Amino acid sequence: MPQAVCPALSEYNRLELIDNQKNNKPMQTRNLFKTFSKMDTLTDDYARLIVSSNSEKVFKLLNRKGDTPVVMIISTVYADSIPDSSISFYTTEWQPLDATRFVNAPTSEDFRSISINPGTNELTVTTLHPLTLQFDDVTPSAAPQPIVSTYRWKEEECRFVP
pTM for this structure? Predict the structure, then answer.
């Protein structure tokens, strides 16, 4: 993984995480912010990296029928315990891919969290939409309403589908 994918970890940091796993040590390293980053899950096709106390990255290798796998990365930053996520896709050689090839995102640009269930390959996207109806001098609630959408990876189509 190139440093541009996770700027907080140098090449040494990334190698240290893997070496620690091979030597049955805790998979953590002091990152470039002088705090600790920890790999809390690592399998052949899934990894969860706690980059800092308020950010994490989830890596999932997605198989594509008759084609090379794709690396999906969900990057999440927490602000006052509210998650804000982004999703990106890469070739196994770390070349960026257009995300719209793999998932139809909700129409709102207001993503709050994106997560993957490593067992089922289900992608869950939570967005917040403010209530916009106004009538009879009644103003809408200022509290946004969460909308949760779940997608599953369809290997035959090489994309997530509702």
Answer: 0.70
